[in-house]
Amino acid sequence: MQVNGSHFRSIWLADDNPEVLVIDQTLLPFAFEVRSLGTVSDIVLSIRNMVVRGAPLIGATAACGLYLAATTDSTEANLQAAYQDLLASRPTAVNLRWALDRMLPLLLAKPASTRAWFARKLAQQICDEDVATNSGIGNHGLSLISQASNSSSNCAVNILTHCNAGWLATVDWGTALAPIFKAHDAGIPVHVWVDETRPRNQGASLTAWELGAHGIPHTVIADNAGGHLMQQGKIDLCIVGSDRTTRTGDVCNKIGTYLKALAAYDNGIPFYAALPSSTIDWTIRDGCRDIPIEERSAEEVSHIRGRDTETGNLTRIRITPDNSSAANPAFDVTPRKYINGIITERGIAKASEEALVALFPREAETRPI
Ligand code: MRU
After folding, report:
1. Structural domains in the chain?
2. For residues 177 and 171, what is the distance between their CA atoms, to the nearest angstrom?
3. CA of 219 to the centre of ligand 1 (A)
4. Is the distance from the beta carbon of residue 134 to the nearest atom of ligand 1 less than 6 Å?
5. How far apart, in whole angstroms, are the C-alpha atoms of residue 319 and residue 298?
6. Which residues in the chain come in under a pLDDT of 50?
7. Which of 107, 152, 307, 313 has the most Cβ atoms closer than 10 angstroms to its Cβ?
8. How much is the pTM?
9. CA atoms within 13 A on the CB side of 285
10. Which of 161, 163, 200, 245 to mutate for ligand 1's pocket (most ligand atoms within 8 Å of CB)?
């Protein structure tokens, strides 16, 4: 995507040295800074602290982490240790495990002397494939927006999205936002209701920044506003991303997604999840039971970050009483019955095991339950 007239991906490899470059997402929308990551522990910390975040990007970053591990010590012991450290960096997005499981056996099958070269090639391939995959999601989702445009009485298609499932959450294009970028580029008028997405505000900080940079009309709303807007007929369609989707179509995504799905269901508004097949965990059927939900620091709830409008400095302030405790479950599960469809790189499937397996028969077999 374009940032100030230059094309950027959210992650890339330096040309001539073992270095991974990422956009520091903790500073957006106030500062655009590129960070250099040179070690596995840099990668682990950048995933854990959400310098990079979003399920597909977490997977791509972990792949780059294995590449860095292979450049320092390509023995099996070191690669296995790096695999474990990377896998433990965040628990919910299954793309992390997907990328590591794809790379490690291929690396170990090669002579140690060629592993660093091969790891770079595989990490690059995972990044490139992510871009193509998300572009495919965008094309399939575009057909939905185009249909909504034909049937909507509003002058623009009003789409609600939650969290950030844009290009920053992937290597490029995004998942939920890819159809929106493509619709806008195709001349379909769209307007996006952007859930702020407490506690980390990925919607207010990242989605709003991406949409603004692309010239797409959007309005940031408090997380609690979506149901009311649906009752008022101001939302035509909801599209969200996913961190892990079961083979049966239950969708785990940023905390608060479930409440939007309930409100959409009650108001007869179509609710779609857009995700690459690497987000489907073929080993599980019941999202509420089987998906590990990350518990993050209570300080993300009790404190808030932003720019001090007087000094211009980034600052962090407390918003709860000193003695109140806070809890911070980072994701929730939307059961498949509330989901109208799953937009993937191969097409739009019903949120059901039959439909997902029919679309991805080989992947569904890879890890039978
Ligand atoms: O905690 P985050 O910011 O990593 O959570 C991200 C989300 O929940 C996204 O919606 C999801 O990863 C899909 S990204 C294309």
Report:
1. 2-129 (1.20.120.420), 138-366 (3.40.50.10470)
2. 13
3. 20
4. no
5. 12
6. none
7. 107
8. 0.97
9. 4
10. 163
